[in-house]
Design a protein that fits this description.
- The complex is a heterodimer of chains A (133) and B (360).
- Chain A contains four helices and five strands; from the N terminus they run H-E-E-H-E-H-H-E-E.
- By secondary structure, chain A is of the alpha+beta class.
- A five-stranded mixed sheet of chain A has the order 2-1-5-3-4.
- The longest helix of chain A is centred in the middle third of the chain and has 7 residues, at 51-57.
- Chain B is an alpha/beta fold and 360 residues long.
- Chain B is built from eight helices and 20 strands.
- In chain B, the strands form five sheets. In chain B, strands 1, 2, 5, 6, 7, 8 and 19 form a seven-stranded mixed sheet that branches. In chain B, strands 14-13-12-11-10-15 form a six-stranded mixed sheet. Chain B has a three-stranded mixed sheet with strand order 17-18-20, with no helix packed on it.
- In chain B, helix 2 (35-46) packs parallel to helix 7 (318-336).
- Chain B starts with 8 loop residues before the first helix and ends with a helix.
- The chains are: A alpha+beta (133), B alpha/beta (360).
- The interface between A and B is medium-sized, with 18 and 22 residues.
């Protein structure tokens, strides 16, 4: 399977009757996941989804998301690349509490179910930890 | 099992007492007190089937109580928004007329069929049941403490690494290290400080989720030097033959080695299928395969409803689990009352159902 297999989808049909490739990709944002062994996968995901959902849709290894995105399990832990930390922002209090349940928490640790995908995150790089517990 | 403390002489005493009183006989055993297990009690109750409910947690609600008590659920019919806790409370109220008996903090460990067709079930606390039908409503499986992914931790579990403590005395004289920042970590810090040779609380940040008064008490013990608070993360274990001697802790200023003969990590709970996997039930990717008429497994009389089952088209929704419970109860009736014809009735009009519900 190509590492960067793109699965475009949209929840609503385009507004006009004309459908161009540009429209289809207009709301797609690129996200790169880097595995502990250095293997990298870039996926495209629809704005409005969370980074966790983008990972699950693209079968990214190491993102378990046991609770399904409720910020209740800390098994979608990622390290946001230093260059992107301003754009993703900091963890909210509830997320910070849940990070207590993650392993090897570092600077840039986030639960990726709490990162909403927007245009501003196009090119986002996150690292998957060696273990999710 | 929530408690991995080694069995001492006091546990065997409990076991004997339970064994001498004989098994509890009931119509149905419901495994799991989540929303589907609770509603199963209701549907079974309407058909005069009495239930005992067993759950590994200390309270009803399952994932609703453990994972998202405060979070809103928007897809329960007729309740535009309800929290996990509210849903649980309402179900508990709804099933009250049927007087289900709950066995919390217990996990069904074994299940076998008797010569008379009934099932014999035993919990990890040695409670024994004889039941005509079994309803597995165990959701994502049984909640078990998260094991920190530290190399070699398995060999220390039960000897030096404990996920809960049954007897405080067993901790006397140890160099205790407690890891975590929630209520369990803080409660055990306060409880074990008086018996410990030394007690170190390790947490990744100098902020605690625990109840403020516990945090206050802990800070006071730290001031008095009864407890040491270390901000950092455990990275390695040192010891031999299952007995810990020290831990490596990564702190802001580097790695520190601290003495430790008993470690209590509190990193929350995760769900594991557990002993259900060993009961000879057909599985599909770790879920129990059922039919969609009775929600029965390959073992006649054992049903599975809610998140733990699988059939083509399965959706892990609370409302699907409710539907499954209703159909399961019809099939269970044929087993519990083989000679009785089941008359389909509505709660709005049936005076006999209303009598059971205590509204008439």
């Amino acid at each position: 399977m190509p590492a960067n297999l793109i699965i475009p989808f949209r929840s609503q049909p385009p507004k006009s009757g004309l459908f161009s490739l540009k429209d289809a990709y207009a709301t797609m944002t690129k996200i790169t996941f880097i595995q502990p062994d250095g293997e990298s996968q870039t996926v495209e995901a629809e704005n409005g989804l969370t980074v966790m959902e983008a990972a699950k849709l693209n079968d990214i290894a190491g993102i378990e998301a046991e609770c399904g995105g409720a910020c209740a399990c800390a098994t979608c832990h990622v390290y946001v690349d230093e260059a992107w930390r301003d754009k993703t922002g900091k963890a909210a209090d509830m997320e910070e509490d849940m990070l207590d349940f993650a392993f090897d928490v570092r600077e840039g640790s986030r639960l990726c179910c709490q990162i909403k995908i927007t245009d501003a995150l196009d090119g986002l790089v996150v690292r998957v930890p060696a273990k999710q517990f | 099992m929530m408690d991995t403390t080694p069995a001492g002489p006091e546990t065997s005493g409990v076991a004997e007492a339970a064994a001498s009183s004989g098994p509890i006989e009931t119509d149905a055993i419901v495994i799991g007190a989540g929303p589907c297990g609770l509603f199963a009690v209701f549907e079974l109750g309407l058909l005069d089937i009495k239930s005992h409910v067993v759950d590994i947690l200390d309270r009803p609600g399952g994932q609703c109580a453990e994972l998202y008590p405060e979070k809103p659920i928007y897809d329960v019919p007729a309740l535009p928004v309800v929290t996990g806790q509210e849903l649980t409370d309402r179900l508990m109220e709804q099933i009250k007329p049927f007087g289900p008996q709950f066995h919390f903090n217990e996990r069904i460990d074994s299940l076998s069929r008797e010569a008379d067709g009934r099932f014999r079930l035993t919990t990890d606390a040695e409670t024994e049941f004889l039941a005509k039908v079994v309803v597995v409503a165990a959701g994502g499986g049984s909640f078990t403490p998260k094991r920190p992914p530290l190399t070699g931790i398995e060999e220390y579990e039960g000897k030096s690494v404990f996920y809960s403590v049954r007897k405080i005395e067993t901790m006397r004289g140890h160099d205790i290290v407690i890891v975590g920042g929630g209520d369990s970590a803080l409660d055990w810090t306060l409880n074990l400080a008086p018996v410990a040779k030394s007690l170190t609380l390790i947490h990744r940040r100098d902020e605690f989720r625990a109840a403020p008064h516990s945090v206050e008490k802990m800070r006071k013990l730290v001031e008095e030097s009864t407890v040491r608070l270390l901000i950092g993360q455990v990275t390695g274990l040192e010891g031999a033959n299952g007995h810990l001697s020290a831990l490596d802790v990564k702190t802001a200023s580097g790695t520190e080695r601290i003495a430790c003969t008993a470690m209590l990590p509190f990193f929350g709970l995760t769900m594991k299928l557990g002993p259900v996997a060993d009961w000879g039930l057909n599985l599909h990717e770790n879920l129990i395969l059922v039919d969609t008429e009775r929600f029965e497994t390959n073992e006649h009389g054992i049903f599975a409803i809610g998140d733990i089952n699988w059939y083509p088209g399965k959706l892990k929704l609370i409302l699907s689990g409710f539907h499954e419970g209703a159909l399961m109860a019809q099939a269970a009736h044929r087993i519990v009352y083989p000679d009785k014809k089941l008359l389909f009735q509505y709660t709005t009009s049936s005076s006999s159902l209303q009598k059971k519900l205590g509204v008439k």
